[in-house]
Design a protein that fits this description.
Blueprint (H helix, E strand, L loop, with lengths): L8 E6 L6 H10 L3 E5 L5 H18 L4 E5 L14 E4 L4 E5 L9 E3 L3 H6 L5 E4 L4 E9 L2 E8 L1 E4 L4 E2 L12 H13 L3 E4 L5 H11 L4 E6 L2 H4 L2 H7 L2 E5 H7 L5 H15 L3 E4 L14 H13 L3 E4 L1 H4 L4 H16 L2 H9 L8 H16 L3 E5 L4 H8 L6 E5 L2 H7 L5 E5 L6 H14 L8 E7 L8 E8 L4
Parallel strand pairs: 1-2, 1-16, 2-3, 3-12, 5-6, 12-13, 13-14, 14-15, 15-16, 17-18, 17-20, 18-19
Antiparallel strand pairs: 4-10, 5-9, 7-8, 7-11, 8-9, 20-21
């Protein structure tokens, strides 16, 4: 289990269906590269136990496994309704206000004054994942008078979406801050930040997280798309969170935005995850629909670093089967000659700096010399991600003295992280590179490997060396 054969990665969510040692072990064997802990559900004790078991499986399989904690973020919801449920009629007037009294067919509590502060006449509000739609006619600091455009049943505590409006709220609630402190204390590798609307949201999270973990911006708000390049530049990775994105935007726009986000992330060299409803039917069925298989394949053809399972692996009836079929879909796509053509078509020119110049040259070396492997030495992960950005044809072994960095890189396209003791001179570097290629079975004696590193060794962002070495023969 030390090295995956495929380049694209699988991110699997843990939950009630996948929380024992045997279950996590089976998911890793089936193809899960990174595990997601969803802090919208479960207790701190639940997540601590799951992370402990992940580390046990990691030690057994001999391959770094990443752990991503997903923060809940602000959840905008109405209050309680009389009898638990009412029906809104199209064309009827409906009031939203701060009054905590139970709602009825004429009004409901909306305990979020920040929403009223951001409204304009004509703003549309979506309730219950977009099933109901209201138009704002009048509003004040503590209420909004609306007209029901699309009616239907409305029950307690249903969610509220405000598409096209930047809400003056932090992406980090008090719960998120407590969860974040706990998760960082456990040693998570990635933090997924929900409800990102603007670049400042990433900066706010960075002040709390520092270098303890990498930040993944979940792009689920249309407002975030308006600042896409700036958010991608500030985050360490991005997630195409198609759930809320598909609520706040017409469904026909989501595939186009997915492609745009993947391209922006690839251009910047940031890992990008495509998530939500990828194999949704496998929550209850042992096989996916043909459309779902095509959806996973599309993300792989686009060059996404990883695809994600949510309820399929967390609470579904077939978690291992879901990971297995996702692994097989990726493997089938990556054997298609058209897959490489798609990657080339989506490739962005390198940046005019030493690091990218070398990685660009490395990509060309891999095409011409067909080395058995590419080996990237990295302390911070930067060099490895720049190599991954180029999508070379060879396997990419990533040698790093930091186990924490190795775990973070487990999410990135094509990288095979290998923790090792640090090096101090070029001859030692060559020995480590060729030995790793032999141990992982990607090279045989007499094969060549292409190496990128930075001199002096151990200095972050100093990639300035490209070396072609031959694996020693006995």
């Amino acid at each position: 289990m030390m090295r995956r054969q495929r380049r694209s990665r699988i991110l699997a969510t843990l939950g009630p269906a996948s929380s024992t040692l045997d279950q996590i072990r089976a998911l890793a064997a089936a193809g899960a590269d990174v595990f997601r802990l969803n802090f919208s559900h479960g207790s701190h004790a639940d997540h601590a136990e799951r992370l402990k078991l992940i580390r046990q499986v990691e030690a057994e399989c001999g391959r770094p496994i990443g752990v991503l904690m997903d923060l809940q973020g602000p959840k905008l919801r109405i209050g309680r309704m009389a009898g638990g449920r009412v029906t809104l009629e199209p064309g009827a007037s409906f009031r939203l206000d701060l009054d905590p009294a139970e709602g009825d067919a004429r009004r409901a509590q909306l305990p979020h004054p920040e929403i009223f502060a951001a409204l304009e006449v004509g703003t549309e509000l979506l309730l219950d994942d977009g099933k109901l739609r209201l138009r704002v006619d009048r509003f004040g600091p503590d209420h909004a008078e609306t007209t029901v455009l699309v009616g239907g049943p409305l029950s307690d505590r249903k969610g509220v979406n405000v598409p096209g409006v930047v809400l003056p709220i932090s992406p980090l609630t008090a719960k998120d801050r407590a969860d974040l402190a706990f998760g960082l204390g456990l040693g998570v590798d990635w933090v997924a930040l929900s409800f990102v609307q603007r670049p400042d949201d990433i900066r706010e999270a960075r002040e709390l997280i520092g270098d303890q973990a990498w930040i993944m911006a979940k792009l689920e708000k249309p407002a975030a798309i308006e600042h896409l390049d700036a958010i991608v530049a500030l985050a360490d990775g991005v997630m195409v969170a198609r759930g809320d994105l598909g609520v706040e935007l017409p469904p026909q726009q989501v595939p186009v935005l997915q492609r745009r986000i993947v391209r922006a992330a690839r251009k910047a060299g940031r890992p990008v995850v495509v998530a939500t409803q990828m194999l949704e039917s496998m929550i209850t069925a042992p096989v996916p629909t043909r459309a779902e298989a095509s959806d996973v394949a599309t993300a792989v053809y686009e060059g996404a670093d990883a695809v994600m399972l949510s309820a399929e692996s967390a609470s579904g009836a077939y978690p291992v089967e879901a990971v297995t079929i996702m692994d097989r879909i990726i493997g089938e796509v990556e054997q298609d000659p058209a897959w490489r053509s798609e990657l080339e078509a989506g490739h962005s020119p390198a940046e005019p700096n030493t690091q990218d110049a070398l990685c660009c040259a490395l990509r060309r070396v891999a095409e011409l010399l067909e080395p058995a492997a590419t080996v990237a030495f990295t302390s911070s992960g930067f060099s490895a991600l720049r190599v991954s950005r180029e999508r070379p044809v060879t396997p990419i072994l990533t040698l790093t003295p930091s186990l924490a960095i190795a775990r973070r890189l487990a999410l990135a396209w094509g990288l095979h992280p290998v923790p090792f003791d640090d090096v101090r001179e070029v001859a030692e570097m060559i020995d480590h590179a060729t030995d790793a290629a032999l141990r992982l079975g990607v090279a045989q004696p007499g094969d060549i490997v292409a190496i990128v590193a930075g001199l002096p060794f151990g200095q972050t962002g100093s990639t300035n060396l490209l070396h072609v070495a031959r694996v020693p023969t006995p």
